[in-house]
Design a protein that fits this description.
151 residues, 6 strands, 26% helix, 38% strand, elongated
Amino acid sequence: MNVKARLSPEDIARACADAMWKEDDASKGLGMELVEIKPGLAVMAMTVQPNMVNGQRICHGGYIFTLADSAFAFACNSHNERVVAAQGNITFIRPGKLGDRLVATAREISRSGRSGIYDVHVTAGDAVIAEFRGHSRVISGTWLPETDSTT
């Protein structure tokens, strides 16, 4: 039986996220948490640790980019297609500070053929600290088996 025929889009998104998370040593290693997953949407959080602040004593932009990129990855891999980043740009608006819980919310803007566009808002509390736009590209393979071997 076809996976898409027996699972809802939400179930597919969760199963793909679970499969990805098992292998995502980078996100886990930085203490990220997958807060929410739906088709085309992912919310991830990370607390700014002492080893994440730079010489200005604010969160290094690379960590903010990495959080946004991880949320982007989970959002664009939520349709049982293997997807990679083709491009990502970030605009830093406010600094993240030591101890801040940063939350990245990735939303699908467009998905057509093998290409997708996703926007990610990174917040600390009520303040938006960065805006990220990612372009994705579908590669070969799926996260879940296409057929159920028990039928």
